[in-house]
Amino acid sequence: MIDASTRDALAGVVGAPFVSTDADVLAARSVDHTGRYSGRAGALVRPADSAEVAAVLRICRDAGAHVTVQGGRTSLVAGTVPEHDDVLLSTERLTTIGEVDTAERRVRVGAGVTAAALADAARAAGLVFGVDLAARDSATVGGMASTNAGGLRTVRYGNMGEQVLGLDLALPDGALLRRHSRVRRDNTGYDLTALFVGAEGTLGVITELDIRLHPTPRHRVTAIAGFARLADVVAAGRVLRDVETIAALELVDARGTAVAERLLGVAAPTTARWMLLIELAGDDDQTGRLAELLDALDLDGEPAVGVDPAGQQRLWRVRESVNEILGAYGPPLKFDVSLPLSQVEDFQSAAGELLAAHAPEAIPVLFGHIGEGNLHLNVLRCAPAAERECYAQMMSLIAEHGGNVSSEHGVGSRKREYLSMAREPADIDAMRAVKAALDPTGYLNAAVLFG
After folding, report:
1. Which 3 state secondary structure label does DSSP give 286?
2. Would you state the pLDDT for residue 1?
3. 3-state class of 131 per DSSP?
4. Are residues 348 and 382 in the same domain?
5. Is the Cα dihedral 131, 167, 432, 58 positive or negative?
6. How many CB atoms lie within 10 A of CB 194?
7. Residues 161, 166, 170, CA angle at the centre, nearest 5°?
8. Which residues in 263-354 belong to E strands, given as ranges?
């Protein structure tokens, strides 16, 4: 627990109602989104603005207290789980949404704004926020920037880093860094914004962001197409990801839709082993273009097509229902990987053999953003003992297939021991040097990335 003087100092900055040392509150905040990983914390602090965040960091640094930053706590790699009786610094009160600049297509928001709230604000102004993900109602833009999140629209708009035009950030020494520019091209000195995006809160606490918005396409058309072989889906992904009007390209595993139909009543529109959700969006009607593309693919059965919002929503429900059933048998074992498309089928086969050997009762479900080779392998009904057998071997399997052990969810604390599988020693040394320069005592997000 933090000492009384530190608690009083924090309360003096943020107000006593926004500092908690209640054991039940801290226990609930010390478990990750998957439910598999937990830690311990000494206090919860909820600052209201950038200045308060900076002051909280100064107090904790001077008191020798570790700090773990928490946004929507949707991390899937224990990125918000404290390990050192930490002070939990929550961004949940940083929820300001500025006026949308429709001419420049940008908006300034607080780090605690959820993806859904930002998307609603953009939509009200006739624009689109480029990152969408299943945890949209909980995930915060600060956390999404900290992990450089991707999601369902990455094939069109890119990852979160491509949406961030500027930011405010509290450095570990309590200084405030404001990196904003009203111009679209600014090559004056180091690209500090890019440094902090994807740093997983190890170099500072993002408090505000300038977010790029996009024009709203006038026409959308959505389809779910079935394929007999994963290799056929990969071949389709290679073609479709380069189509100018592609808006989404999502792999769906029939093993997942089978569970979704049984538990949620959401039926897939095809009985094929593999499915691909395809969406085109543009200023012109895309229906004819989609039909041409589908005709050129090696499909298993007739595709289902949604040309109006209701039909499109029904098809998207198939994809998103897979996320909803992942916890049906307890916390799933999650692997967020990035693979060369040429290796996807071989990896899927090898991963299946590995799981059959160590967790024969498990249900592997593979889905994700096939255009980028960014896939999510979720293992349902996997006991903790099987996890211990499988995790390290799966990481090695990913590396053997030329993949990256973390794609869009970050390293967190769960994957830190596998960092060397994705980065050369010189890379890791350079990252450690940056961390040491900005946070010499290593008190900020100490469990994350390096541990």
Report:
1. coil
2. 67
3. coil
4. yes
5. negative
6. 13
7. 100
8. 274-282, 304-306, 333-338
Dihedral of alpha carbons 40, 45, 49, 50, sign: negative
Closest listed residue to residue 11, CA positions, set 70, 61, 59, 54: 59
Per-residue pLDDT reduced to its tens digit, 159-176: 999 999 999 999 999 999
Burial of 392 (0-12, 13-18, 19+ CB in 10 A): exposed
Calpha distance 68→4 (Å, rounded): 19
Q: What is the pLDDT of residue 428?
A: 93
Question: Of the residues 191, 215, 239, which one is the last residue of a structural domain?
Answer: 215
**Do 157 and 128 lie in a common domain?**
yes
Domain assignment of residue 275, given as a range: 219-324
Q: Are residues 199 and 283 in the same domain?
A: no
- Cα-based distances in Å from 256 to 56, 233, 260: 44, 16, 6
378 beta partners: 334, 365
Distance (Å, whole) CA 245 – CA 247: 6
How many residues does this entry show for the chain?
A: 451
Helix axes 254-264, 309-324, angle to 10 degrees: 100
Helix axes 344-358, 230-240, angle to 10 degrees: 140
The count of domains in the chain is 3
β-bridge mates for residue 364, sequence order: 379
Closest CA to 408 of 139, 208, 39, 184: 139
What pLDDT score was predicted for residue 211? 97
- Do 249 and 183 form a contact (C-beta atoms < 8 A)? no
Same domain, residue pair 230 and 277? yes
**DSSP reduced 3-state for 128:** strand
Distance between CA atoms of residues 292 and 62, nearest Å: 64
Partners of 379 in the β-ladder:
333, 364
Q: What angle do CA 105, 106, 111 make, to 5 degrees?
A: 155
Structure tokens at 356: 């059959």
Give the residues of the chain that fall short of pLDDT 50.
none
Is 281 part of a structural domain of the chain? Answer: yes
Residue type, 391: Y
Residue 293 within a domain: yes
